[in-house]
């Protein structure tokens, strides 16, 4: 059997424990709180900031623009005669991407690590 000790706690804390413990005993509830607090510290969850999301979005747009540039130049290299409408659509997409990319290139870059 486990050794038992007495812990002197202010009445306000006992009141909070009793209000929130449900069917658990006071000792079980305090043990649960201690265990859950220690587990959270060991996890060290990291969250993404808004700025990091924006940088990621910008990098993805840069990547898409690079793909469009590549496929456009690749199609021209092969000598395939693309319809004029298709060429104009690709050109307009590239211009839209360039406009989107220009607004926030000074702040920094997000990097993507591939495994």
Record the SSE blueprint:
Elements: H1 11-20, H2 26-43, H3 50-78, H4 84-102
What this model shows, in words?
The chain is mostly helical. The chain has a domain at 52-102. It is built from 4 helices and no strands. It has helices at residues 11-20, 26-43, 50-78, 84-102. Helix 3 (50-78) packs antiparallel against helix 4. The radius of gyration is 30 Å and the shape is rod-shaped. The chain starts with 10 loop residues before the first helix and ends in a 13-residue tail after the last helix. The model has no long low-confidence stretch (mean pLDDT 77).
Which labels suit this protein?
115 residues, mainly alpha, 4 helices, 66% helix, rod-shaped
Short description:
This protein has 4 helices and no strands. It has 115 residues and is mainly α.
The total of beta strands comes to 0
Low-confidence spans: pLDDT under 50, at least 5 residues? none
Task: Provide mean pLDDT, rounded.
Answer: 77
Secondary-structure content class: mainly alpha
Instruction: Give the ordered list of helices and strands.
Output: HHHH
How much of the residues is beta strand, in percent?
Answer: under 5%
Our Rg estimate from Cα atoms comes to 30 Å
Sketch the major β-sheet.
none
- Helical fraction: 55-70%
End-to-end C-alpha gap:
51 Å
**SS element count, helices:** 4
- Shape descriptor reads rod-shaped
